Amino acid sequence: MIVWLNGTHGVGKTTTAALVQQLIPDSRVFDAEKVGETLMDVNPGLPETDNFQNWPPWRSLVVETAHRILDYTGGTLVMPMTVLIEPYWREISQGLASYGIPVRHFVLHADQETLRKRIQDDTMMGPSVFRYNYLTPYDEAFHGWLGREAHVIDTSALTPGRAASEVVNSLSAA
User: Fold this and answer.
1) Confidence of residue 72 (pLDDT cuts 50, 70, 90)
2) Ramachandran angles phi, psi of 114, nearest 5°
3) 3-state secondary structure of 106
4) Using a CB cutoff of 8 Å and minimum separation of 24, what contacts does 159-168 make?
5) Neighbouring residues of 116: CB distance < 8 A, sequence distance ≥ 6
6) Residue-number span of the structural domain to which 93 is assigned
7) Over pLDDT 90: what percentage of the chain?
8) Could you give the number of structural domains in the chain?
């Protein structure tokens, strides 16, 4: 199974993923962003883009990598990754389904004010224009397809530990 933690930058996906992994026996965290980083290292570079998710190989390689990891290890993959473009999500989720891999899709959500404060106060990355730039596309996706597509966990007033517990409790209830 895959537990996919979606949501915008600064919502707490990476922190929550590590905590979810600790709560689910035989689970691992797979950060699909590393696939994008690998593609960014291709030389000469792939066609210019502002987001590696726009490269079709990223989406298919995420599917293949997740499949191969699960085929090798079994268990559960916890995947913290923002995907805001519905056709990209469909491509990934259908690719995983073609391998018979169940995906539990969660959106870690917070209101815009909370997100802006978290980005501003981030002691690891500091304020980030890149992260701020995704707030509007996230809001549009959330109020469009994304909020209907996934199980939403509002993290505005939750600690990462509590958000992780809600993810795991939701898995148990299904």
Assistant:
1) very high
2) -65, -45
3) strand
4) 160/12, 160/15, 160/16, 160/19, 161/19, 163/12, 163/16, 163/19, 163/108, 164/16, 164/19, 164/20, 164/22, 164/23, 165/23, 167/3, 167/5, 167/16, 167/20, 167/106, 168/20, 168/23, 168/24
5) 132, 135
6) 2-173
7) 85
8) 1
Rounded CA-CA distance 16/140 in Å is: 23
Task: Tell me the per-residue pLDDT of 112-152, one tens digit each, with 9 for 90 and over.
Answer: 999 999 888 887 777 888 888 999 999 999 999 999 999 99
Largest CA distance in the chain: 48
Cβ neighbours of residue 88 closer than 8 Å, sequence gap 6 or more: 53, 59
The domain spanning residue 102 has which CATH number?
Answer: 3.40.50.300
Is the link from the previous residue into 44 a cis peptide, with omega within 30 of 0? Answer: yes
What's the pLDDT at 21? Answer: 98
Contact 116, 135 (CB under 8 A): yes
Average pLDDT taken over every residue of the chain = 95
Tally of CB atoms within 10 A around 102 = 11
Give the span between the Cα atoms of 14 and 31, in whole angstroms: 8
